[in-house]
Specification:
Blueprint: E1 17-21, E2 26-30, E3 35-38, E4 41-44, H1 45-62
Antiparallel strand pairs: 1-2, 3-4
Length: 81
């Protein structure tokens, strides 16, 4: 893991963590778990996150629920009607 989780536990988030780079004065994504182990089985954490996104999207599509975007996030161009 490139970042030290003892100095910032947020780098253990599956999606990583946004932090300010003091040299460039810009935010950058750091950390993020690459693999996780459960019951002795190694899982790819990024693939698990993608599977969860897909499952949630399928469930919302099945119920015809609208897609809600966080403030400041623009919907993909194909989704704009």
């Amino acid at each position: 893991m490139p970042e030290n989780p003892l100095s910032n536990l947020k780098v253990l988030y599956g999606t990583g963590h946004m932090r300010l780079n003091p040299q460039t004065n810009r935010q950058e994504k750091v950390g993020g778990v690459k693999y996780t182990i459960k019951d002795g089985i190694i899982y790819d954490a990024k693939k698990l996150l993608a599977d969860v996104r897909r499952i949630v999207k399928e469930a919302k599509d099945k119920e015809n629920r609208p897609v809600l975007y966080q403030p400041g996030m623009e919907p993909p161009k194909a989704a704009v009607k």
